[in-house]
Amino acid sequence: MVQDIDIADLKRITELIQKKHGYDFRNYAMSSFKRRMLRILELKSMSVEALIKKLTEQPTFIDEFLDELTVNVTEMFRDPSFWRILRDEIIPGIQLNHKEFKIWHAGCSSGEEVFSMAILLKEMGILDQVTTIATDLDVNILEKAKSGSYPIKNMELNEKNYIRYEGKKSLKDYYKEENGRAVFDKDLVKNVSFRKHDLVTGEIFNKFDLILCRNVMIYFNQSLQNDVLKKFHESLFKYGYLAIGSKESLIWCDIASKFIVVNNEEKVYKKIKD
Question: Is the full-model pTM beyond 0.90?
Fold first, then answer.
């Protein structure tokens, strides 16, 4: 069992991944990255040297590695008050200027947030008016997101969140139970494009009216957060909205003056300057 991993080893691993595979973890928050690396080494029962050897010699191992490294615990309608603000204030604000609009889920993980948004839009009667792009750097987790299939045991918490969000129906109306899993209606995501995209190294690829990137940047150091927030600014139409995680902020970053705070508690911001 691995007891610890030092900074030099972490640096060797990040440099190798960047050079050989093109993923840049060098500006991830070190404490978080270290914690996840220790988890992978324990899970795989590997030494640091064995991990480096496998990353070097087995090109396909990187997908398995990323799957473990980027694992996020998520749920549907997480922070129900946030989703109420979206439904009651943010989306009506977008609709004042655009009948049809675009949403980006950045770092969508296994897709619970994407399906939550789709249900919200369906209940507002505007699902067909919205084009959505959901991205993640982990191809395996994107496949899970596309499938819309989740363990049925997760639905108890998801249903509680949905009730607190004050949805119009029951979550059960949106999925079928199959082999111990909740399989969501594919029509919910017919206007969603799931794409591989790396927030660190990826290019700006579109313009959006709403970007959600919640509880992703807590894993980045301040320099990387600043760079990613600049990308989000450039990826938003003027007067578009950015929603980030409850423990995240943009008041300190280079583009802070180009946004106004719409809701401080729910961390929703509006772009006011290009």
Answer: yes
Phi, psi (deg, nearest 5) at residue 101: -150, 175
Percent of the chain as helix, strand, coil, to the nearest 5: 50, 20, 30
Q: Which of 179, 27, 220 is nearest to 244 (CA)?
A: 220
Q: How confident is the model at residue 2 (pLDDT cuts 50, 70, 90)?
A: low
**Do 240 and 62 meet the contact criterion of CB atoms below 8 Å apart?**
no
The share of the chain scoring above pLDDT 90, in percent, equals 90
* Residue ranges per structural domain of the chain: 7-69, 80-149+186-271
Per the CB < 8 A criterion, the answer to whether 271 and 248 are in contact is: no
Please, what is the Cα angle at 94 between 165 and 86, to 5 degrees?
Answer: 15
Query: May I ask the CATH architecture of the domain 80-149+186-271?
Result: 3-Layer(aba) Sandwich (3.40)
